[in-house]
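Supplementary Methods S3. Input chains for the assembly prediction are listed below.
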Amino acid sequence: MSIKKKKVMTNGDTTFYQFDAQMGFWGVPNMEKEVSFQQRPEVPVRVKHNSDGNRDEEMILGAYEKSIVCFGGSHTWGGAVDQEARYTNRLSEILNRKVVNMGHCSLGLDQVCLSVLQKSSKYKPEIIVIEQYPWAVHRVLNNYVNGYVRPHFVIDNKGKLQLQKVSSLAKIPFFRNIIGNFYAFRKEFTEFKAGINLNNKAGGTFVDPIFVGWKTRHYDYMYDIIDKILLVVRDYCFQHKIKLLFGLGAIQQQFGPESTSELIDYDLPRKRLIELLEKNKINYVDMTEPMLKEHTADSPVIYEDGHINAKGHDLFAKVLHKEFIKLNWVTE
Amino acid sequence: MKTKLFSELMQFAFSKKKVSEKLKYMWLGIIYFAILSKNNSKGKSNSSASESASGDDIYPLF
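Predicted structure tokens for the full assembly:
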């Protein structure tokens, strides 16, 4: 393992990722690099992946030891923050027990579901935490991300959830691009038919249609898929006697000025996700209120792009801990 | 059905601002027409992601 020179990471950077036949992409195992992130380019951050490709230390569990496994996207992976400052590391310190970080940048809820089913058992989880940035729920419709084709779910004519695996051809970048470009075209075409143009961001007035009331219908199918994915994860955890908790982050736009239009609601994906979690009787903790409460101009809890900073991670860990106590999963 | 799909694909192409983009999307629309048409004829009504791409391995999860 060698330490290479510093690189500035921007959102969507795939330096730490490689093709994975099951997940579409996953962290490069045993990679260590000192980089800086666009959120704070002046500060070097050491990123180290273990042999499983997770940004974590090697995890060796005792014979009867169980862990807490945290899944999520770049917030969990720790974009722009030091490894030790992440909420998983903080939670491990607070609870004095092993917390596994299986977060990966740009991971969708569909990939999280597959990771829970296929990768979590190795760590013998007693508790699974799924960190979900509510805006990122749209990823279940985005089948081509950062040059990688993602496995995804579809609902068939009988209303059943089906997994559409990544083609074995996608291992080869040339074919991956061909498949991915088709997915990208199909998505853009479908959005065009719904009157959505995600490329038209000129003039600074662009509002993501996921927040727009009159575009909600386009996303109904997405929420149907999420509903069924939640059921799969819930049932898997129930069958394996694993406690499941969703941690919902606060959306970047909620830290800014309130929407002047009643038709634009930055809370929309969060509210829809909460509806589904409650419908499926899945425990969740909403970070919005504590995050907004602790956020000040002098001491923010997020970076400008919405990723949580070290203070945000610390808060995230404390709120999770409090919720564990409330649920009687740990003692004070 | 096929005529409607083709018409929508062409509308999509012509919605692009630049001539080069219009041509590119017309070309892509023609290339992808067969796959999109095949999916439509299967009667899948899901709007965004339900269509399958040829070559993909699909199996029911449960």
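Chain A has one domain: 68-326. Chain A has a mean pLDDT of 92.
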